[in-house]
Amino acid sequence: MALAAAVTLLLGLPVAAAVRHTPFPVAESSGDLKAPATQRARQTQPNFHAPAATICSDTPVLREVADPSPKPQQHNIAAGESRLRRGDGTHAVAKMIAPPSPPAPPAPSPVAAVVEAAADASYAAAEMPMAPVSGSSAVRQQQVAVTAGVVDDNADFAAFQQFLQGHEEANNLGRDVSVRQRLQVVDAQGRPVPDAEVAVSARNGARMWARTDAGGQVWVHPNAFDDRDSDSYQVQVRRAGRTVTAALQRGQKNALQVIVADAPLPARAKLDLVFMVDATGSMADEIDKLRDSLQGIVRDIAKLPSNPDICLGLVTYRDRGDEYFVRGWDLSNNVAAFQKALDGVQANGGGDYPEAMNEAFDHAVQSMNWRGTSTTRLLVSLADAPPHMDYPQPRYEQTMLAALGKGIKVLSVAASGQDTTGEIAQRQIAQYTGGRFIFLTYKDASDPSSGPGSETVHEVENYSVDTLDTLVVRLVREELAQLPKG
């Protein structure tokens, strides 16, 4: 029987065994993850819709998430002001005289109020001041380079585990990823099979979903979806209508390789790239840099050997009581129109320290028009504050499961002022989705005004430093370079 199963896998045919069928999510799937946000919560239903868009919009369409408790905050952070971090355990705001007022009582559940408009209306809805402001072309000065470092917490997984174990609060954040196993999907010629749908299930009903990255790989974390330490799991891999079934043993050291014969090769690389930006007042410098360098990033990516078909999206967020809560511009292939939308984003608001990162991350993953099969999906998240964990759902530890299920790899960027809680959240999201943790660096780690340099307050070692835009382009290039060649 074992030999027959091995031959069947090699031929790319489903194994004819008496195993429970695990459905793959489709665009119409409506299952939600309702389990409590704990490290060992069990997942039994997909909490996402499969990415299904076939093309990108010619113009960025604005969608807005309504503030669930639009009560004006007493203290806002104006553009240019910065946060203090990691001092005595408090998170104050520079130039603040009094502490911020407590947040409004949580609403039962944030409800997304979707506002769709043509491109011109989207730009009008963005914050377009009557007079030029800092960052606009009329008064923009030469920008100082923003330097950043990067680490791969999957490459140095032991150091990542040591980081989490060194902070007690990590026990109540994210999911348990202490058990980790690698799944590799290849075709009959040994080439990686990107964007293959993966479903992993235990006999007790616990399940998880993923899509392979450009290199045909996905990390499986059994403890993140199974709270009963099952000994083995059924793995189903589907690509282009062909489904292959295999078995994964908990704790097996070698990667599980699944062969899907005759997997089609994409004619041209497709890249969906979304920027998610904290648009509170302390983020002014980073927003200006992103605005100034976006065209260069897109130009350099377009010149890559893979000649990718690029679509760009943007999500900005603040907090409850601010001028807006979460805004998203759907993926578009119109770079000029996207640049215009980005030019309308201004930094302001954000009275208390945490921000609406949970809600923005959920919108970026669940509501953006990500393209379907054979797409490389990347989300660049830029933030200088942690998410509000005192707000009701959605929470990032649920959304990162959905991101993996939709094949969205997250590049988390920690800006100046990010505290330990924020670093934990950003690194957990990046590690779980197979992404990278990026952090801004300075000449003096404790003083962001000291200018570009190689020092950081974050708990990382053995990192490389470059300009932020160069790093983003490099990581995109490395991802696309893994795609199989015809």
Overview of the molecule:
It is found in: Secreted. It is a single chain. The two termini are 35 Å apart. The strands form three sheets. Strands 1, 2, 10, 11, 12, 13, 14, 15, 16 and 17 form a ten-stranded mixed sheet that branches. The chain is built from nine helices and 17 strands. The N terminus is likely disordered. A hairpin with a 2-residue loop joins strand 15 and strand 16. The chain is α/β, with parallel strands linked by helices and 486 residues long. It has a domain of 315 residues: Rossmann fold, CATH 3.40.50.
CATH architect. name of the domain at 62-99 and 107-169 and 268-481? 3-Layer(aba) Sandwich
- Fourth CATH level, the homologous superfamily of the domain at 62-99 and 107-169 and 268-481: von Willebrand factor, type A domain
- Return the string of H and E elements: HEHEHEEEEEEEEHEEHHEHEHEEEH
Strand content: 15-25%
Helix/sheet category:
alpha/beta
Helix percentage = 10-25%
Question: How many beta strands in the DSSP annotation?
Answer: 17
Overall average residue pLDDT: 81
Question: Cα distance, first to last residue?
Answer: 35 Å
Radius of gyration: 22 Å
Instruction: Return the CATH class of the domain at 62-99 and 107-169 and 268-481.
Output: Alpha Beta
Kindly identify the CATH topology of the domain at 62-99 and 107-169 and 268-481. Answer: Rossmann fold
Q: Globular, elongated, flat, extended or rod-shaped: what is the shape?
A: globular
